[in-house]
Amino acid sequence: MRGGAPPGLNTRQGGHRRQPKKKRNTRTLVLVIAIAFLFLFTPAQDRIRAQIQEWMDQLLDEYGPARVYPVHASYSVERRVILVNPHGTEINFNYRLPIPFDRSDFGAEDFGFEMTDGSVLPTDLLQVISRMEVRSAVGNTPVQIPFDSNDILLETNAIALDMASTVYWPPLGENPNRCNTGRCVIWSGSIPPGATATLIVEYDVSGTSFSWWDGSRAPDEAPRSSAGFSMTAGNAGNFADLSRPGHMGDMKAQFGSHKRWYDREPSPSDNYAIDGLDPLVVELAAEIHASLDAADADNAFAFAHAAFIEVRDTLTYSKGLSPARSGPVCLSDGRGDCDEQSNAWMSILRTRQIPTWYEFGPMTDAEYAAWEPHAWANIILPFDEDWCSARYIEIESCWIEGEVDVVNNKWLLHTPTTFTEWIETPSDEGEDAFQFYRPLAIGCNGCWTETWNTLGQPEITGGTFRVPVREGV
After folding, report:
1. What is the pLDDT, as a whole number, of residue 268?
2. Co-location of 254 and 388 in the same domain
3. Would you say residue 55 lies in a domain?
4. 129 against 266, higher pLDDT
């Protein structure tokens, strides 16, 4: 997936009109006087510095450039997979199309926190897919794709879309006629010389914004956990808590302990997208750790957040770099797109064995006018044990599993402008990510393109909110 900052980045939308020049000059004068006071009166430095930072935060929040997101949205979107045969002979193809799922604040799970009285709290749904259908550009009858994981259709009973292609939805497996990274639809067929094959896919989607974070700079409009369990550095656990028994410990074993992840060029050469052993990454992680307050030195949340700010504020967004480069290369070059900046952030976290993994899907703007491929990260973080006990949460389930999108300044924030197509599943060293990036088997190079377009008008409810594009969360 390629992509990054949302299309239609707007510095005005959702905000306020700029104040007259006189008022801007007044604020500037106040700032200059405050800075002078800071240097003239040394005992007041900490207090004045904090006040200046608060003023700057307020100014950036209200007047600075920002991305705008809806609180809730329902929409229909069309995807076109276009294959072209440039050769003089017929070619065959096999394309795996993921079947998306209802995403919750606990990934794909239906239940979240387990309480000490034996009850289990339901999750908050962030994305619901109510319809998925496929058809050929030259066929007339759409095929409805079932969401029930027990509903399978083998290649022997494949449904014809046209004279040259079929679809089916098989079980998981490793051969070409099986889904290898999760539930999927396989589109298979042949393309005559010089011809084109197009698969049209439609989805009906409902989504909501959601914040796993309850810090002072988290957007107030984004809903929080319905159970009231959101995370800050103040109620987060330590690095040792990542090894708790149950799901938390399993995720550390599957995603945290492997400091090198997703080799884009399997042996004899290595080219890991995530590399927590690279000397540059190790040195930067040590600097970030050393910058934390003493009280946060063992706080997994505080380290992850500080790494997020470091990557967000020091790397320049650069679109169209291909193939996607590793985290260390992105850090060394000082620029990168969504894949690469996610690789950089996750590389830093892997030095401390904090579990992080990929999430993929297309992304649009607040008006749903333009779409582009996107990649971002997931993370699991523990709550403090005493905090869990005080709220009667079983310690084995006392954690959050949230999204982090570095290039869009979304710390533990989900917005309905991203369509979750696939969340990485555990594998030995990231082989599933390798396979997800390579869904097509075909006898030509550069003959595959995809487009996404909104159908009709999305239904936006709950208003919109701004996420500033700025330094310092």
Report:
1. 61
2. yes
3. no
4. 129
CB 221 within 8 A of CB 71: yes
Residues 226 and 252 in one domain: yes
Q: At what angle do helices 279-291 and 300-314 cross, to 10 degrees?
A: 120
Query: Which pair of tokens denotes residue 89?
Result: 């002979």
Number of H helices, E strands in the chain: 9, 24
DSSP 418: B
Angle at 44 between CA 43 and CA 48, to 5 degrees: 155
Domain count, the chain: 2
341 neighbors 406 (Cβ within 8 angstroms): yes
* Confidence band of 305 (pLDDT split at 50, 70, 90): very high
SS3 320: coil
Please count the other Cβ atoms lying within 10 Å of the Cβ belonging to residue 460: 17
Q: Read off the pTM.
A: 0.87
Q: What is the pLDDT of residue 443?
A: 85
Neighbours of 69 (CB within 10 A): 26
Same domain assignment for residues 144 and 251 = no
Considering the domain architecture, whether residues 382 and 307 belong to the same structural domain is answered as yes
**CATH (domain of 257):** 3.10.620
Same domain, 248 and 166: no
| Domain membership of residue 169 as a residue range | 71-112+120-204
Q: Which of 440, 403, 384 is nearest to 98 (CA)?
A: 440
DSSP letter string, 175-238: STTSBSSSSEEEEEEEE-TT-EEEEEEEEEEEEE-EESB-STTS-TTS---TTS--B-GGGB-B
Q: What is the DSSP letter of 398?
A: -
Between CA 247 and CA 295 the distance in angstroms is: 27
- Taking only the tens place, the pLDDT of each residue in 13-44 is 333 323 333 334 444 544 555 555 555 555 55
pLDDT beyond 80 at 401: yes
pLDDT-derived band at 4, boundaries 50, 70, 90: very low
The model's pLDDT over 282-303, given as tens digits with 9 standing for 90+, comes to 999 999 999 999 999 999 999 9
- Number of neighbours of residue 110 by Cβ within 10 angstroms: 11
The β-bridge relationship of strands 272-275 and 399-405 is: unpaired
